[in-house]
Design brief:
The chain is mainly α. It has one domain. The longest helix has 37 residues. Keywords: Membrane, Transmembrane, Transmembrane helix. It comes from Halomonas citrativorans. This is Phage holin T7 family, holin superfamily II.
């Protein structure tokens, strides 16, 4: 097996616990980070859906006036 492959594999295995430890040292617990990431995900979803719904609503009103 390649030495570089072994290093990559071991790094990938150690990354999640290392990230959690660094975030905890930074002053936020994993629960806090889950909350932050959930709110970020929610904001992104809203940001993507609102323009789509506004376009559909605009088309609906245009078609309704034309009928």
């Amino acid at each position: 097996m390649s030495h570089h492959f072994e290093i990559s594999t071991e790094t990938a295995k150690a990354a999640p616990p290392a990230v959690v430890s660094l975030l905890h040292v930074g002053g936020m617990t994993p629960a806090d980070w889950v909350t932050v990431l959930t709110l970020l995900y929610l904001a992104l979803q809203i940001g993507l859906l609102v323009p789509r719904y506004l376009t559909r609503l605009r088309h609906y009103w245009e078609n309704r006036r034309g009928s």
